[in-house]
Amino acid sequence: MRQDPGYKLLFSHARMVEDLLRSFVPEPWVNGLDFSTLERVSASAVADDLRERHNDIVWRVCWGDSEGGQRWLYVYLMLEFQSTVDSWMPVRVLTYVGLLYQDLIRQKLVQAGERLPPVVPILLYNGDRPWSAACDLEPLLEPVAGFDAYRPRIRYLLLDEQHLDEQALVGAQGLVQALFQLERSRSPQAMSEVLAALTAWLDAPGNAELRRAFTEFLRQVLLPARLPGIELPALNDLSEIRAMLSERIKEWTEQWKQQGLAEGLEQGRAEGLEQGLEQGLEQGLQKGLQKGLQKGLQKGLEQGHRREAELILRQLRRRVGDVPAAMAEPIRAMPPERLEALGEALLDFSSLDELRIWLEQW
Fold first, then answer.
1. Model-wide pTM > 0.70
2. Contacts 24+ apart (CB under 8 A), 96-103
3. How far from 309 is each of 9, 164, 316, CA to CA, in Å?
4. Beta pairing partners, 227
5. Could you say which DSSP state residue 218 is in?
6. How confident is the model at residue 62 (pLDDT cuts 50, 70, 90)?
7. What is the Cα–Cα distance from 308 to 314, expressed in whole angstroms?
8. Sheet with strand 119-125: strands edge to edge
9. pLDDT in tens, 174-198
10. How far, in Å, CA of 281 to CA of 275, rounded?
11. How many CB atoms within 10 Å of residue 297?
């Protein structure tokens, strides 16, 4: 899903950035920010190297108190929606922050003798795989005695949207929480409920542009990804999208169910086959190419099946909460046809008891 342009449009609004900081950055300095001064740093005011980072957005806001006076704090918002995790992200962040500092000096926003302002790098990641890269540069540096004084330091704040604590989003009242809930919704009904709250929050005339931004994100990014091949009617407002979902909720619930199952099975098989083939090729170099390929294919199918089971378990946890080991292990041991049937029934479960009944019937 090409979410990054839609996210960039949304986080080009000061209210979204304010909500992101207030709701997802639990650090004391946030309370000292003067959000009335929040402003986006123009693309023309940053170096060419930074402008090439199409999905990055730089904001600044005044912070401080009566004793130290107010000064600028820069928020470097990075949008990462690539399918693979970049293990060298701390090195990239070090480069981006350095370029930003160079540009502030070039623009004479920091004068000789003055100190550079703080920069808070925030990585907003929306991939299916959990973000596994280090958030600090320190683990990537080789420890060598006598060189500690020359080791650079940099850290970024990670927001792994797809793997945030579900309880942190339940009953949330912010725009960013609503955005995350929309993307994590697994049925038209769930999306419609979030849209009802979002429409009410953005009903005031002063929110017209942000309301349009959410409408464009849903119309051009989220709905086409959830409903591939379906021609959507002209949708010009959040209320129209909600009305459309309400009218076709039964039809599209089945569509989403089938799509989610197909994507999960395809991803599981592809990843399993890829890993299995890699291992098989390595063994083939040692014991014979033909034997290694056969073993790799078999291992790939087995790994693909295990990944399908883990994907379905993850989706069940979002539906009914923690799945006890006594129920999870039989699911992992299911044959492919039974696992596929469980995937098709995912959206029918609203409690552990319903899942237990289904398992007993099979």
1. no
2. 96/50, 96/53, 96/56, 96/121, 97/121, 97/154, 99/46, 99/47, 99/49, 99/50, 100/46, 100/50, 100/58, 100/74, 100/76, 102/47, 103/45, 103/46, 103/47, 103/50
3. 36, 21, 10
4. none
5. I
6. very high
7. 10
8. 33-40, 56-65, 69-80, 119-125, 157-160
9. 899 889 888 887 777 778 888 888 8
10. 10
11. 14
CA–CA dist 229, 300 (Å, integer): 30
Contacts of 329 (CB under 8 A, 6+ apart): none
For residue 302, the one-letter residue type is E
Contacts of residue 327, Cβ cutoff 8 Å, sequence gap at least 6: 352, 355, 356, 359
Cα 221 to Cα 63: distance, rounded to the nearest angstrom: 35
Average pLDDT, the chain: 79
How large is the average pLDDT for residues 109-121? 91
Q: Residues 116-167: pLDDT tens digits?
A: 999 999 999 988 788 999 999 999 999 899 998 999 999 999 998 888 876 6
What is the residue whose two structure tokens read 């609004």?
13
Above 90 in pLDDT, residue 348? no
